[in-house]
């Protein structure tokens, strides 16, 4: 498995969370709610495009009204490969967090 970046993981999780409302701007807003960090448009679109290229996301252009000046909305959905990489990532992170109890106590996780 080639690990995904933390940003890619976060975006995949947000697409899973938003489901039918997983449009780029909604993803960006949800990331800000969860992390407190406002990503630039490029900071969201570039990794989303990378996830599409890797086969972890599918993108669909949705036609919209005139107020978007003819620009379609981009809707994202997670592929089965995307769900698999999320599972692998979670297992890897779980293994990395398998720390001695004394360390977990110091960081107040026990």
Helix-strand sequence:
HHHEEHH
Question: What is the number of domains?
Answer: 1
Shape: elongated
Major sheet characteristics: 2 strands, antiparallel
Number of helices: 5
Give the low-confidence spans: none
Task: Using the 3D structure, state the CATH architecture.
Answer: Orthogonal Bundle
CATH class: Mainly Alpha
Helix fraction, binned, reads 55-70%
Task: Write down the overall mean pLDDT.
Answer: 91
Strand content: 5-15%
- Could you tell me the CATH topology label: Arc Repressor Mutant, subunit A
What is the SS-derived class?
Answer: mainly alpha
CATH superfamily: Winged helix-like DNA-binding domain superfamily/Winged helix DNA-binding domain
- Rg from alpha-carbon coordinates: 17 Å
**In angstroms, what separates the terminal alpha carbons?**
30 Å
SS elements, strand count: 2
Strand order of the largest sheet: 1-2
In short:
The chain is mostly helical and 110 residues long. The protein has five helices and two strands; from the N terminus they run αααββαα. Helices cover 56% and strands 11% of the residues.
Structure write-up:
- The protein has 110 residues and is mainly alpha-helical.
- The protein has one domain: Winged helix-like DNA-binding domain superfamily/Winged helix DNA-binding domain (Arc Repressor Mutant, subunit A, Orthogonal Bundle).
- 56% of the residues lie in helices and 11% in strands.
- The chain is built from five helices and two strands; from the N terminus they run αααββαα.
- A two-stranded antiparallel ribbon has the order 1-2.
- The chain starts with 5 loop residues before the first helix and ends with a helix.
């Amino acid at each position: 498995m080639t690990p995904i970046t933390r940003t890619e993981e976060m975006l995949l999780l947000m697409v899973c969370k938003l489901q039918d409302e997983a449009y780029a701007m909604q993803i960006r807003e949800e990331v800000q709610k969860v992390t407190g960090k406002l990503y630039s448009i490029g900071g969201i679109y570039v990794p989303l495009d990378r996830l599409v290229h890797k086969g972890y996301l599918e993108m669909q252009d949705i036609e919209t009204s005139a107020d978007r000046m003819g620009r379609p909305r981009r809707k994202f959905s997670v592929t089965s490969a995307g769900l698999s990489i999320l599972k692998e990532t979670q297992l890897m992170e779980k293994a990395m967090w398998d720390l001695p109890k004394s360390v977990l106590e110091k960081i107040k996780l026990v």
